[in-house]
Design brief:
Two copies of one chain form a homodimer.
Chain A lengths: L5 H11 L6 H13 L2 H16 L1 E3 L6 E3 L6 H4 L4 E8 L2 H10 L4 E5 L17 H9 L5 E4 L5 H14 L5 E4 L15 H9 L5
Parallel strand pairs in A: 3-4, 3-5, 5-6
Antiparallel strand pairs in A: 1-2
Function (chains A, B): May play a role in DNA repair. It seems to be involved in an RecBC-independent recombinational process of DNA repair. It may act with RecF and RecO.
Protein name (chains A, B): Recombination protein RecR
Organism (chains A, B): Anaerolinea thermophila (strain DSM 14523 / JCM 11388 / NBRC 100420 / UNI-1)
């Protein structure tokens, strides 16, 4: 682009690499940074550099934790119910469920889902440590909260197969119409699921 | 948020400071950075730190240029028509107009618009250098391309008042229905403008 100095181009390109940020938004963000006091760019740069070096995976649940700690805040919290284990795909899912305030058990982060096309089998996921945690005997219910997608469903079925012999209760998050949603805007699959899963009133 | 290590919180907060990025998008971006190889975070961090120190304002048109240069690429380009001067609010507007490929003249960046409520008067903008450029005598037309907003219109009127005695042609970007737009979705003001500005077919 004529008239755009290289450092500004570089920043736009770097922003464009982030998910959901197209060329227009990337330009807007770069020019915003340019207009702001130095601290804005500096704080973001420092946070970016720190986040990878100062975090690690919890050795128990594989959620994100502060580097150098023995286990994550949730695993270390004695008030969290050990008998309920919620299995999710990645750390962002933990954050999302925590925000609801509706779950007081513990988590297990698979760090992905089964995806044969991309070569992700059970060995690439944290499934073995999950089975070992359940084998310890304190877990009574495993809530499988993988995404309601093809891969999420396949992973859920695989986990059920693996966990069934251990005699724990295995559940999956409910499917149906989203709250506040409108019937006429629901896609066909969601509507079929909502019908099939209808409950007594 | 329970379970979120401080460096991750800091990154989410830094992303949230960017325009158009809410808490959900900020979390998604931060967790994306976490999943990527170190280079992604590093390149963005370096670009952020470089952009402020390695750029400067062009002393002629006040657009962004590489620090240490005498003038910006557009001002230094002898093929750009000196007789047409497009006046914009900020450097992003230059980029947007350049992308259209429809303007081959030069620019003048005001670095803002008149806004009495925020205490921005003519002295806070690059209006004096604009008048001086026009006084040099090579400019024949000043195209005022401030935004179609209250402040943009007020700034355009002020500029017309200041430039009129200099005997140059003063124009303003056309208002009307956006291309590809649908009449029934146009807001009332746009439609009124389109009516008032109707042209012979």
């Amino acid at each position: 682009m004529a008239g755009l100095p290289a450092p500004l181009e570089a920043l736009i390109t770097a922003f464009e690499r982030l998910p959901g940020i197209g060329p227009k938004t990337a330009s807007r963000l770069a020019f915003f940074i340019l207009r702001q006091p130095d601290e804005v760019a500096q704080q973001l740069a420092e946070a970016l550099l720190a986040v990878k070096s100062q975090t690690a995976n919890c050795p128990v649940c594989f959620n994100i934790m502060l580097a150098g700690q023995e286990r994550c805040q949730i695993c270390a919290d004695p008030r969290r119910d050990e008998s309920q284990l919620c299995v999710v795909e990645d750390p962002l899912d933990v954050l999302v469920i925590e925000r609801t305030g509706g779950f007081l058990g513990r988590y297990h982060v698979l760090q992905g889902v089964l995806n044969p096309i991309e070569g992700i089998g059970p060995e690439q996921l944290r499934i073995r440590p999950l089975i070992e945690r359940v084998q310890e005997g304190r877990v009574r219910e495993v809530i499988i909260a993988t995404n309601p997608s093809m891969e999420g469903d396949a992973t859920a079925l695989y986990l059920r197969q693996q966990l069934a012999p251990l005699g724990v209760r295995i559940t999956r998050l409910a499917r149906g119409l989203p709250m506040g949603g409108d019937l006429e805007y629901a896609d066909q699959n969601t509507l079929l699921r909502a019908l099939a899963g209808r409950q007594e009133l």
